[in-house]
Amino acid sequence: MILRLKRSITLSNLARWATLCALILFVLLPTFYLISYVFTRWDEVNYEVFANPIIGDENWRQIQQVLFFSFKLSLFTVAFDLIFGIPLAYILARKKFRGKSFLEDLITLPLVIPTSGFGFATLITWTTATGIGGIFGLQSGLISLDAVIPFLNIPFLVFIVHIALTFPYIVRTIATKFESIETTFETASRTLGANPLTTFRKILFPLSISGIFSGSVLAFARSLGETGATLIVSGVSSTASIAIVRWTSEFKLATASFMGSLLVVIAWLIILPIEVYLNKGSSFFSVPYRFPRTLSNWIVKFERFASRKFTHIKNFVPLFIVVITVLVPIVVVLNSVIFYWSGDPYTGKIQGGVLYQLFGPSNYFNSVLKATLTSLIVALTSTFIAMCIAIPLAFIIKRWWYGGVIRSVLKVPLIIPTSSLGLSVLLLWGSNGFNLVSSGIWLIILTHIVFSVPVIVESVIAAYEGSDIQMYEDSARTLGATAYNAIETVSLPLIKGGILTGFILSFTHSIGETGATFIVMGRDVTVPALVVNMVEALAIPAALFTSTYLIILSLILLAIIRLTTRR
Amino acid sequence: MSLIQLVDVTKKYDEVTALDHLSLSIEDKEYVCVLGPTGAGKTTLLRIIAGLLEPDEGKIYIAGILVNGLPPEERNAVYMFQQFALFPHMNVWQNVSFSPVIKDYQESRIKRLTLEILEMVKLADRRDAFPHELSGGMQQRVALARGIASGSRILLLDEPLGALDARLRVDLRAQLRKLAEDQELTTIHVTHDQEEALMIADRVVVIRKGKIEQMGTPHEIYTSPKSAFIMSFVGGANFFEGNVIKVDDSGSIIEILDRQKVHVSDISRNVGEKVVVAVRLEDIILGKVDGLESNIFSGMIKSTMFLGSSIEYVIKLDNGITVSSKRLISDAYKSQKPKEHVFVSFLPEKCYVFEYPKIGLLKEIEAI
Asked: Reduced to 3 states, what is the DSSP secondary structure of residue B246?
């Protein structure tokens, strides 16, 4: 009996160490290599960035400029998200109405749509006559590509794209948090005489502050790292992520890696205090000061008034934002494909049509097929390898004392700007590092594993925590199941949903990923990268077709997610 | 020889000591209730026996074999959770046959065994139902059936009736006891419900702050409590602080608060000692008792509480002390009303005398 015990302990130890080694090699090293690269190649960085004989510190000034712009953009995006996302989250969590699940899908859509396709849809919608402009009978788009929001000095299209892509993180995270809070607290508050808004401010808001913070962190990181859509709509402006792509393609690796490291470090300095605060377990929020009595009376009065008068505005505006930023671009792009199908609708030239560009001399159809194959191989392989690491890892995280540390380290690949990540992977595995893999499909796979592992781990853990696995497993153990038996017969079937969700999330993420892929792909172009290439080559009808194709692909995947997560 | 034996078992969580050098022996086929307030270490004790937790110190023997370090599946002790932990992705049949399947019994034997046990708990017709389709009482029976089907001789029950509503809880107590007896199981049943423990157990072990406070038959625990805490936790009582001023063969005299004297039969204390006098609620009589000259106080009824078969009176005595008295409804015809003046008396032989607790009387009886 004791002998058997020893053997099973050795085996499980072996499995644990293998998983941890794979984690370090495939996920953590690629994530952190960028920063160490800056230190080991400091001479190069210094030469390129600070003391170039020809341009002096021009690159350094550019870095400061794009970094400032990127952080400004992300902060305003999150602020905007919060103002309109919290009411929407509240509606989703607390109200029942027809079309609710459609609304939920609509909000989730930007999570699964490949960003370059989405960016292109937005571009078409706002800047061309095929989009909103056409509805108003204009010969051009509603706005021009370089239109800027007054005062904020942020390009309008970039802002719109960032809001659409970060909105789901805010709304979903906060809605989930709201749902987890029992309505009895609010009911009690209402019966004690508080109006809905006051109840929200005094009860629901403080109880869900942790969810609001973590949603904001996710949205902030997403905005900071967004590359694919921004590449297409940015025009002359440049965010930090795009600058990294540009410099990498110009082989200014030192400049790119220095900037990437700065981006990661500054992002961490902003996010870390919030994470620490959240991990401390203080899920409540208390305002350290109290409003003067007259002021708080005034606030309550205002809230009572607003509760009565502004309900519809509160409900309507967020809905309007979702429709205009998500639904309209998709409809426009689908519509445009039909519009451009056989030829340019304005000039009548068949060279400007979808058919000609796909099957004509440039033969884009072939590129689309090839890119689809590349994308599928990448997504399947990287997701499979990531699952092999992530599922055992999720168990390790829940069972061992250092699990919390691993879990928070795993947040890094999720918030690291994708172009920095791509650069880091390129430097680690490519000729400047291990010199094992050069740009191409294998490097894409290695890159996608980095962000797939945390995605799968998080969904497996969510399923794990959702159904009290430890209790069921303990039960199975006292009923005579060995540790391995218990995992096989009880735990794995119970978290099946989580594993499936993780698989699909990772798969869609891999299919749609643009920023990192663009840097490491070499000649093996994936579908989203192809869209970017087409836009740059001004092959608009082909880009329209490919975006539509991508969007339909992700709609199908979304439908599968819906089916699997709903029991 | 005892079936389960714990020797000097200690378990600490960070700063909190859940079990403090606890030793306990449990005989074969015994039904033991471990009773204690929340946080006393009851669940920790059970988990350590099951092998779900390892103690920091001390030894655990099952059937004479040292089981420290042995994984739960090798201990043959089934742990039943308060929420039953029926596997939500398996139906009743799969849940109950879980252990036989895991243990790789023959197909025909699995079928026979599972059916037999399902019939025993009267759930054979619900064999295809999933746990969420069953009522709380049914879930509890499935959990029990699953435990019995494992063939284990030891049943560890963690508040097995806690998740059920009050009426069902009472009904199921007797069933649980009978099942354990019929199956010749050794059962350790953890509860914080003293009524449940007294009714169901062969032996009650009261633990507090990780230590055994007292153990014995339900009758012993109720009639000869060892401390004011036990008295308060099991059954409840009125408590008075006082000093012993006289001891002779006929009994002792204890002076409480404001120089009033209480006569008690107990003669185990010494003159001058600070003590606690305790009287059960049902031993406080309203009115004067014939032939009784001491232990009579006058007061006013503050409130009454109707409990169905009995009424509980809260009486404020003229000396400022508040006492509670529980009277059966049959002799409450006079039906005292609040603000009425009454006499309160109690017999010297119904008084318990305890050493004054070091942590103070209030802390002692506040049940932590």
From this structure: strand
Indicate the residue of A471, A485, A494 with minimum beta-carbon distance to B81: A471
Name the amino acid, one letter, at B11.
K
A166-182 pLDDT, tens per residue?
998 899 889 888 888 77
Interface size between A and B, measured as CB pairs under 8 A: 79
Q: How far is B65 from chain A (nearest CA, A)?
A: 12
CATH level 3 topology of B229-365: OB fold (Dihydrolipoamide Acetyltransferase, E2P) (2.40.50)
Under an 8 A CB cutoff, do A471 and B85 touch?
yes
Query: CB of A211 within 8 A of CB of A85?
Result: no
Strand-pairing partners, residue B323, are B315
Asked if the C-beta of B71 comes within 8 angstroms of chain A's C-beta atoms, the answer is: yes
* Residue A370 CA: distances (Å) to CA of A44, A111, A117, A507, A530: 38, 24, 17, 18, 10
Q: Is B87 on the interface with A (CB under 8 A)?
A: yes
**B71, B89, B147 member nearest A5 (Cβ):** B71
Rounded CA-CA distance A498/A492 in Å is: 10
Averaged pLDDT, groups of 10, chain A, 567 residues long: 55 85 88 84 80 78 89 92 91 84 82 80 83 68 73 84 90 86 73 74 80 86 85 82 85 85 82 73 52 71 76 79 84 83 75 79 85 92 94 88 82 77 86 78 92 88 81 88 85 85 84 85 87 84 85 79 66
Q: In CATH, what class is A41-339?
A: mainly alpha
Nearest CA in chain A to B48: A478
In Å, what is the CA distance from A525 to each residue of A371, A528, B74, B291, B338? 6, 8, 56, 106, 89
Q: What is the ipTM of this complex?
A: 0.71
Tell me if A485 and B50 make a contact (CB, 8 A cut-off): no
Q: What is the pLDDT of residues A195-212, one digit of tens each?
A: 777 778 877 887 788 888
Q: Which residues of chain B have pLDDT under 70?
A: 1, 331-335, 367-368
Nearest CA in chain B to A480: B73
Predicted confidence (pLDDT) per residue in A427-450, tens digit: 888 877 777 877 889 999 999 999
Torsion of CA A10, A16, A17, A21, to 10 degrees: 160
Report the CATH architecture of A9-40+343-567: Orthogonal Bundle (1.10)
Residues A512, A531: contact at Cβ < 8 Å? no
Interchain proximity A5–B75, CB inside 8 Å: no
Chain B residues whose beta carbon lies within 8 Å of the beta carbon of residue A485: 73, 102
Inter-chain residue contact A474 with B98, CB threshold 8 Å: no
For chain B, the structural domain boundaries read 4-228, 229-365
A9-40+343-567 shares its CATH topology with A41-339: yes
**Which chain A residue is nearest to residue B103, measuring alpha carbons?**
A480
Q: Which of A2, A401, A478 is best to mutate for the B interface (most B CBs within 10 A)?
A: A478
Is the domain B4-228 a CATH 3.40.50.360 member? no
Domain ranges of chain A: 9-40+343-567, 41-339
